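Quick question, first post here. What does this chain look like in 3D?
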Amino acid sequence: MPRGERTARHHVLIIDDEESTRLLLARYLSKDLKVEAQLAGTCEQALRFAGDYAYDAILLDLLMPGIGGLEVLKEIRRASPNTSTPVVIISVASDQESIGRALAEGASAYHVKPVRRAEIVATVQQQLAARKKSAR
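> Answer (accepted):
Ran it through. Tokens below.
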């Protein structure tokens, strides 16, 4: 492999309607975990991507225009190549009802914005490791 070239070990879908958040999360994960990030800015785009490709992990904002992040999560869990893919919720919603509903619908973890780099990287790393272990 030529010096400086990195190969992505994991593919992660980042779903958030705020471009700055998508780019920040992608930068954290690509630098710290060497993942390749696919970015989705709408619920419709997210469902299209999740319907076409099996990701290693998905980061999902709950409060999005359109059908919303919770419905995206339900659809991913219902019918997609990502029914067992770890989904990490990243949302400004910090109430116990929102957290409980997301976890009940199949979210693997929940982080309240603003996220700390070390925490989100550690969570994604844990989810990827658990997924790899369960695939054996």
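The radius of gyration is 14 Å.
The longest helix spans residues 117-135.
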